[in-house]
Amino acid sequence: MSPELLIRAKNISYSRGDNRILDRVSFDLHRAQITTIIGPNGAGKSTLTCIVNGLIDQFSGEIERAPGLRIGYLPQRVYVNRLMPLNVERLMQLTRQVSEAEVESALAQTEVAYLKGRQVQSLSEGELKRVLLARTTLGNPDLIVLDEPTAGVDVTGEVKMYKLIGEFRDRLQCAVLLVSHDLHLVMSQTDQVLCLNRHLCCSGLPEAVSQHPEYQALFGQHTGESLAVYSHHHDHVHDVAGHQSDHNG
Known about the structure:
Helices cover 29% and strands 24% of the residues. It is built from nine helices and nine strands.
């Protein structure tokens, strides 16, 4: 693999019983690029992220990863026992040995360093998402995988979250694989779009995908027009431990 190619997925297929979840999906993930997976509920989006980050290993096809690849992961749903006394600093240190300074630095990147001593059960949904987003940056990952990172966050919070994700990409020079339903918001930050409906309907630059017939069949004939003002302008080409809890693919 070239130094800039972090993941190469070839003909990824996955079934659960008789239900075909993914059918021959192929794509590449490159350093310093944001790739967004879009698609309807049940399209296999969450399943694909779990295959990429190694949480699902029983599939057909091939995943080629760059040697020593470091991955940060935020699953679609994170379950924290609200009866268990757990503050933010301790949450950041679960499953990974990191210093207090590293915790503070990560939290500062998502503008929630002031929450370090707060109990997790007292956080709002938006605050918890920012803490968990900060947690994905620990260890300077090469790839950050985010499954619906703005679920449960208001529109203002969504815009800020996507801006932070873009800043992570620029600062860490990492790849980002992002699952989102917020097409009108996420297109402006995205280098590559994968339009998924069990198979890969289409892929490429946001502007090209938004005009593709299969994309428009899924999301409406006028979606491309509504996204025009958000065109891309960059000049470059579970639980807390990450165990899967896949509800809608």
